[in-house]
Amino acid sequence: MANPQLEDGYTKIANELLEALGRIRIPGEAMQVLLFIIRKLYGFHKKEDIIPLSQFCLATGLSKSSTVRAINKLISMNVIYKKVKGKVVKYRINKDFDTWKPLSKRISVYKKVNLRLQKSNTQNIYVSKENIHDSDESSLLPSKEKTDSRVKSIISYYHDLVLNERNFKPIIDSADAKAVKRALRIMSEDEVKDAIRFYIGSAKAKEHGLTLSVALSKHSLNLYRENWERVKWQYEA
Q1: pLDDT tens-digit series, residues 54-99
Q2: If you placed Cys at 109, which of 26, 125, 126, 137 could pair as Cys (CB 3.0 to 4.6 Å)?
């Protein structure tokens, strides 16, 4: 039976910072990574430190792709800073919690209402956030796609990512669900999500727009794999 004691060690953290963490919504994997960063920094009385990816994976039990995605989420929320110099990667907590960027509350698509649409500068059509009503975007999927929980999870991830980072609510259709199913035949769920995040931040997204089926096209996935091979050395122990 676990029986932790302060005498065996503890991590000192300011109450104000801890209370700020309690007020912000951070996804589960990102929170796991954040807690480990706090342990590695404040637990050793440091403001910043080198933390190899292998240590994150060992401490959290997450895969490398999930860990990288979680780190990127914390960076996008301005909760942590990452400084890369050659193969050295240092992390630091952003203590100015007034600059943190909380996730938007999830808003779902309403299937059968007359929604006002607007075009983005990439000429893809999105639903204006002001005209979105509560419902379930999974109702847009064919019945076959509803049987695979991973498809729903990935589409939900893509939905929230675009809404949070590009301030648009993407339209999901059956072609997107089929693209997810094709990608899942050759990749894990975490890898598919990581590929989607890579696409949204790529130059191709600016050219072709934020479309899930394009994000998971053969060409996009090949670009993702090539990029991962180039950058993964930064995260090796």
Answers
A1: 999 999 999 988 899 999 999 989 999 999 888 889 999 999 999 9
A2: 137
Cα–Cα distances (Å) from 43 to 8, 20, 33, 125, in that order, read 12, 19, 14, 48
The set of residues, in sequence order, having a beta carbon less than 8 Å from that of 217 and lying 6+ positions away, is 179
Which H or E element spans position 88? strand 88-93
Give the integer Cα–Cα distance in Å for 201 and 183: 19
DSSP annotation string for 115-130: --EEE-TTS-EEE-GG
Cα atoms in the Cβ-side hemisphere of radius 13 Å centred on 14: 9
Residue owning tokens 């500068």: 121
Burial tier of 10 (Cβ tally within 10 Å: 0-12, 13-18, 19+):
exposed
- Nearest partner of 17 among 53, 49, 41, judged by Cα: 41
Q: Which two tokens stand for residue 101?
A: 């960027």
> For the segment 25-56, what is each residue's pLDDT rounded down to a tens digit?
998 899 999 999 999 999 999 999 999 999 99
Question: In this structure, what is the dihedral angle of CA atoms 226, 228, 232, 233, given to the nearest 10 degrees?
Answer: 10
Return the DSSP state at 45: T
> Is this prediction's pTM over 0.85?
no
> 53-60 and 64-76 are packed helices; what angle lies between their axes, rounded to 10 degrees?
100
